[in-house]
Amino acid sequence: MTRTAPPEWRVFTTSNELCEAVAHLIIETLQPRLKQGHRVHMVVPGGRSPQPIFKLLRSSVPDWSQIEIYPSDERALPRNHPERNDLMIRSLLQGEGGLPAANFHPIPAELGAVAAAVAYHQLLQSRPPFDIALLGMGEDGHTASLFPDNPALSDPAEAVAVFAAPKPPPERVSLGLQRLQQARLTILLATGAGKQTALQQIRQGIPLPAAQVGADLCFCDQAAWGDDPV
After folding, report:
1. Is residue 148 part of a domain?
2. Bridge partners of 220?
3. DSSP 214
4. Do the domain assignments include residue 226?
């Protein structure tokens, strides 16, 4: 489901207000499906920006047993390396009453980008489209590990190997663009003044990767949005 309409922009004075609003929206979206007994498949990003959202979700989601979590991307680093996204996600969402270990699907990036992408592609082929894709955005307009002008951006696979990333480590695995475009609800996060230029380019129609995923909603703090009226 490739979207052509621009996202709905929601701008908040502080990143704390933004995180509370995102968590509330996700819970609001989850509840009807959970009450009907459906499993929910959700993508979550790495990095620092979403961590307060994870903490809010951890304490507010009524039933984690029906929720399946997938990282948007992973660095090709050894298992349990402190800079891996899956380590952070586990630490904030798992534990007593939280996300069951079996419901978290880490990308096996310790195998190397190519082998890990093939393995994750095979996993995703047996899964339905994501119900929610929560994605972050970098200062260059990348999302997940899909960077501007990187060959991985045009790879049609469900999960793609990424090489020569412009920030370390250069070798990564990302969910593929086409797979992300199929999500039922896509939420893009942009916080901090460093994101202003990329956001302005997206609003001008420049097809940065964060624009190509076709977000339904873009949550920004004032620092990222700048001084323009909403």
Report:
1. yes
2. 11, 190
3. -
4. no
CATH assignment of the domain containing 181 = 3.40.50.1360
The token pair at 202 is 């997206």
Inside any domain, residue 154: yes
As beta bridge partners, residue 9 has 218
| Residue 12 is assigned to a structural domain of this protein | yes
Question: How does pLDDT run across 29-68, given as a tens digit for each residue?
Answer: 999 998 898 999 999 999 888 999 999 999 999 889 999 9
| Angstrom distance (rounded) from CA 222 to CA 38 | 36
* Tokens 């899964």 -> residue: 127
**Structural domain count, the chain:** 1
DSSP per residue over 131-187, as a string? SEEEE---TTS-BTTB-TT-GGGG--SSEEEE-S-SSSSS-EEEE-HHHHHT-SEEE
The whole model's pTM is what? 0.95
Rounded to whole angstroms, how far apart are CA atoms 142 and 25?
23
